[in-house]
Amino acid sequence: GAGVSQSPSNKVTEKGKDVELRCDPISGHTALYWYRQSLGQGLEFLIYFQGNSAPDKSGLPSDRFSAERTGGSVSTLTIQRTQQEDSAVYLCASSSQGASSYNEQFFGPGTRLTVL
Amino acid sequence: KQEVTQIPAALSVPEGENLVLNCSFTDSAIYNLQWFRQDPGKGLTSLLLIQSSQREQTSGRLNASLDKSSGRSTLYIAASQPGDSATYLCAVKLDSNYQLIWGAGTKLIIKP
Predict the structure, then answer these.
(1) Which residues of A touch B46 (CB under 8 A)?
(2) Per the CB < 8 Å rule, is B98 touching A31?
(3) pLDDT value at position A54?
(4) What secondary structure, in 3-state letters, does chain B show?
């Protein structure tokens, strides 16, 4: 079946503009994660959605970052008033939360964001 | 606070050699540990997942071991090939949390 997809694959924007990044998880996966990978650094957790529960936003670096998940499927990560330090690859992952799944996370190809 | 460390940061070996990548974590209370590979410009591919109750997992030429008590995991790659060149990341999932805590990765280059 189809894996996790993300769009756009690349986004170049000017400082101060807003951007939206999209993630389509694997069909049937109830859990969805957003991570950020800055150049030369490890992955940084941003936000987690599980079913209809309130999302865990503890990893969002500032109030300029927000995310929503509509209908328990597609998710959009929005960055307002982008700054140069927001430049990174934004990765989305999904997982099944069943007892036999071990919560293995499957990743999309990422969106490379460059803020000029 | 859980911290994950991967050593070495980079490794270059001739084709055909067996090699070991290391991952260490500071808190032994983990739910599972995953090894991923990341190719340039691409997303992450899950290689192996080891539950906290398991000692090792194998897939083809790959073998991952887990020693919770010492806070270590190794990824063994047998008979390395140029196609194995990638960055290898390990990540742990905590018992009391659901996010992954990541190492910075080992960049592996297999020379033909």
Answers:
(1) 104-107
(2) yes
(3) 86
(4) CCCEEEECCEEEEECCCCEEEEEEECCCCEEEEEEEEECCCCCEEEEEEEECCCCEEEECCEEEEEECCCCEEEEEECCCCHHHCEEEEEEEEECCCCCEEECCCEEEEEEC
Q: What is the dihedral of CA A10, A12, A18, A21, to 10 degrees?
A: 0
Q: Which residue of A has its CA nearest to B38?
A: A109
- How sure is the predictor about A34, in pLDDT bands with cuts at 50, 70 and 90? very high
Which residues does chain A have within 8 Å of residue B3's beta carbon, measured at their own beta carbons? none
CB-facing half-sphere around the CA of B37: CA atoms within 13 A: 13
Closest chain A residue to B33, measured at CA: A104
Token representation of residue A99: 């007892």
**CA–CA min distance A113, chain B (Å):** 12
DSSP code per residue over A14-39: -TT--EEEEEEPPTT--EEEEEEE-T
The answer to whether residue A102 scores a pLDDT higher than 70 is no
Is A35's pLDDT higher than 70?
yes
Q: How many CB atoms lie within 10 A of CB B1?
A: 5
What does the alpha-carbon distance between residue B32 and residue B38 come to, in Å, rounded to a whole number? Answer: 19
Query: Of B48, B83, B97, whose CA–CA distance to A59 is shortest?
Result: B97
pLDDT higher than threshold 70 for residue A84: yes
